[in-house]
UniProtKB/TrEMBL annotation:
Residue ranges occupied by any Methyltransferase FkbM domain in the UniProt entry: 94-252
Pfam families assigned: Methyltransf_21
Name this polypeptide is given: Methyltransferase, FkbM family
UniProt GO MF annotations: methyltransferase activity
PANTHER family named in the record: METHYLTRANSFERASE, FKBM FAMILY PROTEIN, SLL1173 PROTEIN
Keyword tRNA processing found: no
Organism (species): Ohtaekwangia koreensis
Coiled coil, from the record: none
């Protein structure tokens, strides 16, 4: 029965038009709209008179943004912080860009900023490229994983049409999931900065599924020279301990982000309450209103 209903649903025409009209009158609860997927381009409002286009391929993140809005659903606390931080950032890095939501926000709010984005999975990278083209943005997109060495590495992909969670040289899939070992290209930020004559970095988003310590190891020549504000995913205590060691004594403040429960300052980095942390200077924290 479920398969039949799914086939019927897939044949319904003009879902984007229909759902756009429905959204004006009524927002269904998540238990309903999680099944109301569609494909097509829709407009995402960031702030008044500032928006970007994005292609919905029928998957979770774009679907949640469509129904909830950019700042009320998926990673809402992180997104709201990112929006504030992008406005004053001149050089922005999005590591683990996926289809590019964070990069698109940055360029929408700050058209004069230089945005560099990295996404190693070929089919996901192509979707990101399409979103860049939709908006005619000059985002520098790189089909590589950022790591602590230059060359190649392995990701453990799946046969699905889209994927959110892969990392370098580590299988994150459950034991009953069939994975496909896939070679990807890697680059260190040390070499990328040197080759592209980059001497400044203001803002980072790092979402690389437990590979965050290796990313920062490969940025050792510039990290504390540039001292960027960093929105970073911390999925385990082990990753947290490694990141804490890197930043210990650096003057950075740590903020644990719970997307459903707010932001709290902590003295030590452990597994995030949700996904992300904000690492920043006291001046940035004060400007964001995060200090008590």
């Amino acid at each position: 029965m479920k398969l039949l209903l799914k086939k019927i649903y897939n044949f319904i025409p003009f879902k984007l038009t229909l759902f756009s009209a429905l959204r004006l009158l009524w927002k269904p609860p998540a238990s309903i709209y999680q099944h109301l997927h569609f494909t097509g381009v829709f407009n995402v409002v960031v702030e008044e008179a500032k928006s970007f286009k994005i292609k919905h391929y029928g998957y979770q993140i774009e679907n949640e943004i469509f129904w909830e809005g950019l700042t009320s659903g998926w990673e809402k606390e992180s997104i709201n912080l990112w929006i504030k931080l992008c406005k004053d950032a001149e050089v922005i890095f999005d590591l683990g860009a996926n289809t590019g939501v964070y990069s698109l926000i940055a360029k929408t709010l700050n058209p004069n900023s230089k945005v560099y984005a990295f996404e190693p999975v070929e089919r996901v990278f192509k979707k990101f490229q399409e979103n860049i083209s939709l908006n005619q943005f000059d985002i520098v997109s790189v089909e590589k994983a950022v790591s602590n060495s230059n060359g190649t590495a392995t990701i453990y992909d799946t046969a699905s049409e889209h994927i959110y969670s892969v990392t370098v040289n580590k299988n994150l899939a459950s034991s009953d999931t069939h994975v496909i070992e896939t070679k990807i290209n890697t680059v260190t930020l040390n070499s990328f900065f040197k080759e592209n004559n980059i001497t400044k970095a203001d803002l980072f988003k790092i979402d690389v599924e437990t590979h965050e310590p290796e990313v920062l190891e490969g940025f050792s020549d510039y990290l504390f020279q540039c001292r960027p504000t960093i929105l970073i995913e911390i999925l385990t205590d082990e990753v947290g301990e490694k990141i804490d060691t890197i930043f210990k004594g650096s003057g950075y403040l740590y903020f644990n982000i719970n997307e459903n429960g707010g932001i709290r300052q902590v003295d030590k980095i452990t597994k995030s309450d949700y996904y992300n942390y904000l690492l920043c200077s006291q001046a940035i924290a004060s400007k964001l209103g995060l200090l008590q």
